[in-house]
Amino acid sequence: MVGRGQQVTRRARMWMSPGLGVKRWLLLFVVCTLVGAVGVLHFTWTGPLHFVATRWILWVNHLVSPEVMPLYTGGMALMVLSLLGALWSIMMLSRSVLRGTGTAPEQAVDLMYQRRHLARGPRIVAVGGGTGLSNLLSGLRVHTGNTTAIVAVSDDGGSSGRLRASLDMIAPGDLTDCYAALSDSPVMARLLLHRFERGDGIQGHTFGNLLLATLSEEEGGLSEAMLDIHEVLRIRGRVYPATTQPATLVARLNDGRTLRGESRFAAEMGEAQIQHVQLDPPALPALPEVLHAIREAEQIVLGPGSLYTSIIPALLVPEIARELRASPAPLIYVASLMTEPGETDGLSLEDHVQAITSHLGRMPDCVLVNSAVPPRDVVARYAEGGAHLLNLAGASRELRGRAVVLPLLQPGQARHDPAALAQALLHAAPKRDQG
Q1: Which residues contact 2 (CB under 8 A, 6 or more apart)?
Q2: DSSP code of 151?
Q3: Where is this protein chiefly located (predicted)?
């Protein structure tokens, strides 16, 4: 009984919490009820029903002596009981309506509080792809419902590559991960990431990739299906592709070679390093919703994710790059934890920042760097695969001045902790210098 009483008290406090949009209407209801009572009294006492009011007063006077209880207290008691009855009827009506829509009445205040709270959250644009971006989104979703993810769609390997080749569509894989991270339906999030282990034609595909492929075919492209996708998947925020047209990532290496298709990078780079990447075709369109989100952003986040295959490809869409350069919002780069074999071998953190700056035309205002050290066995395991920790060793004074160093690791792993990363982004970003 104590636990239930505490839940009732908590819900009552939540109903009265600021910004929920309930107190004002409750107050209006009480005021209107009292004004209505005064109106009924005025009509009864001054109109043709005057005799009814007289008989009522005489009857009450006969039941209770004025010496025991003044007549006006009876009227006040009746008024209070009537008001409580009206409030009770509204509550029961609301419960019936909620049940009819499939919402548990006990959860209504939690859902309203959550959505009102999230609606007041900061407007954040997150740019990138891969598991790093979806990891970030899963942390931000508890703080704001105004997150917009701009996802690179140039992947040409695995399930995404097969769907691209057969349907001439953009790569859906990273979109699927981000939709799952922001979905308000745990069941749908789990289904989106389900990968088929058998079945001719569908083995290796995720359900989410097939769903996006289906919607793309049904609507004539993902750009036309965006609204349906957000509604069907109950997304807390928005997820958009960087471009709606298929594009190939092309890398120019320092040994003079050119590689087409990011799936070839790790396999064919050898000892070479990437000097520059571009999309083919280069003049790719961006969705109007993406450009609007950048203009309205209070914070723009790059990463975390693979430098040349997740972050920079989204920056190569001309309209996106132009809006990012012009935005007054602080641009924050979430530094990778380690180098990535076959992509960023031998690059320092400074090299990562310079690569972003050269491709975008704007240097990040803030570089968020992890200070926690993974367990030795984890570091050793990554080192065997050719990956090494990134830090500020050898960094320039300018980079050190823009760096915010915080512990951002999941315990016992070499991955960003979503909650710690979200908190860091919400508190560590500087305002951009407009001078």
Answers
A1: none
A2: E
A3: cytoplasm
- Report how far residue 144's alpha carbon sits from residue 385's, in angstroms, rounded to the nearest whole number: 37
Distance CA 435, CA 433 (A): 6
Query: Which candidate, 263, 348, 277, 368, places its Cα nearest to that of 315?
Result: 277
CB 205 within 8 A of CB 166: no
- Domains of the chain, CATH where assigned: 2-108 (no CATH), 121-428 (3.40.50.10680)
Supply angle C-alpha 251, 280, 161, rounded to 5. Answer: 80
Q: Which helix (H) or strand (E) holds 27?
A: helix 23-46
Q: What mean pLDDT is predicted for residues 99-123?
A: 67
Classify residue 311 by its DSSP letter: I
Question: What residues does 409 pair with on adjacent strands?
Answer: 416
Under 8 Å between Cβ of 313 and 249: yes
Amino acid of residue 137: L
329-380 pLDDT, tens digit per residue, is 999 999 999 999 989 999 999 999 999 999 999 999 999 999 998 888 988 9
Give the closest residue to 304 by CA, choosing from 418, 136, 125, 123: 136
Tokens of 58: 């005489």
The residues with which 416 forms a beta bridge, in sequence order, are: 409
Burial of 389 (0-12, 13-18, 19+ CB in 10 A): middle
Q: Which two tokens stand for residue 314?
A: 């989204």
Q: Which residues of 256-361 form beta strands (DSSP E)? A: 258-260, 274-280, 299-302, 331-334
**Amino acid letter at 286?**
A
pTM given for the model: 0.78
Is 259 a residue whose pLDDT tops 90?
A: yes
The answer to whether the CB of 348 falls within 8 A of the CB of 394 is yes
Q: What is the chain's alpha carbon radius of gyration, rounded to the nearest angstrom?
A: 30
Q: What is the largest CA-CA distance in the chain?
A: 108
| Token representation of residue 224 | 């036309």
Contact 123, 297 (CB under 8 A): yes
C-alpha–C-alpha distance, residues 136 and 422, integer Å? 7
Lowest mean pLDDT, pick from 16-20, 139-143, 156-160, 292-296: 16-20
- For residue 393, how many other CB atoms are within 10 A of its CB? 9
Q: How far apart are CA 379 and CA 349, in angstroms?
A: 17
Size of the chain in residues: 435
